[in-house]
Write a structure and sequence with these properties.
With about 475 residues, the protein is an alpha+beta fold. The chain is about 20% helix and about 40% strand. The chain is built from 7 helices and 33 strands.
């Protein structure tokens, strides 16, 4: 260092290095600060959806029964207060149906950001395709009203006089064995099949016929169209010389009845068609894969929207979107015998906790006028359909039960009431089986004024909530 020189070269280099180091550190610090701020912002945004779903799915809300008066709720929560590991179905429905009442509470949870809630609820999809069979004669016993002789003159004919008629299907049940179509010919004795007490003859008409039963002043005449199922049960000892006769016809599809002068029979006749009763269960995961939520709605800038195009445009305008989801278990018990017809909401729904009482029955009361109603019944793996109707005021109520094997059971009541054993409706379900009943349709009668539905004895005590999987998906974003 020369005399009068302020800095040596080494000192200058050191100063330059220090300045460079300080600049680098400062720049790095700014970069780190920016990254840290970005990470903190991301973490805060990510926590909005996560925290919001935690509040919804892990607390019952305040007050715990907020779903009764949603507008008075302080905090929205879905957890059941009685079953802490399940979501309360009524709360879930209130969340998705009382949007104006719950909107502001949810906006606070979302920290005033935009959000969308999608709910995928596992459920049964039930339907009735086709028409229930019309019943022309239901379990009607024909016998002499005067008692002596006990039988009646019974005839089915296609033309005037006792002529042969044609069928497309025929079966005879004798001593527990069923003979179908050509098999009945093995029962022939000459050109006849002698009918015995306890025999059951069932056939499907291939032409229009007339059924006539008469004795003295009593006469019953019924026109039966082609396609009708006729079911005849030989109920009395007095069967005279009752036979299926193939004279003028041929076995097995063309015959007439002979020896018909003193017969006691019970007859049913109904359409040869049954509707398809469907009860298919769709899991929430399938609905999510198909992107078909049970409920979907959003709050954008404080307003409620359900239009997916509007929601998507808002999300696309946001610099960030955060999504969280929860898979939860929903406990659902429905028992509302005053419910209106609905293919979506069951009148009765739950899991069997106690066996159904043997003496219980299902009773429907209607006014003395024409009308009809239908029900879909789920009992464990079985799906059944019930149709209750009357066409004229003076007629008795009739019911047709379609079993899962498409067998038909017929019932008759009074002009204003009909009762059906609960065991017939639900079969023999086991503990833990699903029990469901949908009031599917109503025509001709007013639900509130005319129709009363009840179970005697009450079934609610035998049911407990069914546990169904539900997926709740939450998107949070912030449109500028």
């Amino acid at each position: 260092m020369r005399r009068g020189q302020l800095f040596s070269m080494d000192a200058l280099i050191s100063i330059v290095l220090v300045i460079m180091i300080l600049g680098t550190v400062s720049a790095t610090s700014e970069s780190l600060r920016s990254e840290i701020a970005s990470m903190v912002g991301w973490y805060e945004r990510a926590n909005i959806a996560d925290n919001m779903l935690d509040v919804l799915t892990k607390s019952p809300g305040e007050p715990e029964d907020w779903e009764i008066h949603a507008k008075d709720a302080q905090v929205i929560g879905l957890r059941s207060p009685d079953e802490p590991h399940t979501i309360d179905y009524e709360k879930l429905m209130a969340l998705n149906s009382s949007l104006d009442d719950v909107k502001e509470k949810l906006m606070r949870l979302a920290e005033w950001k935009d959000f969308m809630i999608e709910t995928f609820v596992s459920s049964f999809n039930i339907s009735i395709e086709g028409r229930f069979p019309r019943v022309y004669i239901e379990n009607m016993t024909f016998s002499n009203p005067n008692g002596n002789p006990p039988g009646i003159n019974f005839e089915i004919s296609g033309e005037p006089g006792n002529t042969a008629f044609t069928v497309s299907y025929v079966e005879i049940v004798r001593e527990g064995r069923t003979y179908i179509n050509n098999e009945i010919c093995t029962l022939k004795n000459g050109n006849n099949i002698d009918l015995e007490e306890g025999d059951r003859v069932k056939f499907v008409l291939a032409q229009d016929v007339t059924l006539t039963a008469k004795r003295g002043n009593y006469e019953y005449v019924k026109e039966l169209p082609s396609g009708t199922v006729v079911d005849i049960y030989i109920t009395g000892e007095e069967v005279s010389n009752f036979k299926i006769n193939f004279g003028g016809g041929s076995c097995p599809y063309s015959f007439k009845f002979s020896g018909k002068g003193n017969v006691v029979v019970t007859v049913s006749a109904y359409d040869n068609q049954t509707p398809k009763i469907k009860g298919e269960y769709t899991f929430a995961s399938i609905l999510e894969t198909l992107d078909e939520p049970t409920y979907r709605w959003a709050v954008i800038n404080g307003s409620i929207f359900k239009d997916q195009d509007i929601i998507s445009n808002s999300m696309n305008n946001s610099p960030w979107i955060n999504m969280e989801r929860r898979i939860v278990t929903v406990g659902r018990l429905e028992y509302n015998l005053s419910a209106p017809p609905s293919a979506e909401t069951p009148m009765v729904y739950g899991t069997l906790g106690n066996f159904l009482p043997d003496s219980a029955y299902f009773r429907v009361n209607v006014p003395d006028s024409g009308g009809n109603m239908s029900f879909v019944i789920i009992s464990g793996p079985k799906t059944r359909g019930l149709f209750i109707y009357k066409e004229k005021p003076e007629e008795n109520l009739k019911a047709v039960l379609i079993r899962e094997d498409e067998k038909i059971v017929l019932y008759s009541g009074t002009t204003t009431s009909i009762s059906i054993p609960v065991k017939d409706l639900f079969g023999d379900p086991q503990i833990g089986d699903t029990i469901g009943m949908w009031f599917y349709s109503l025509d001709g009668w007013n639900r509130e004024e005319d129709v009363k539905i009840e179970f005697i004895h009450d079934l609610k005590w035998a049911l407990k909530p069914r546990l169904d999987t539900t997926i709740i998906r939450l998107h949070v974003w912030d449109e500028p």
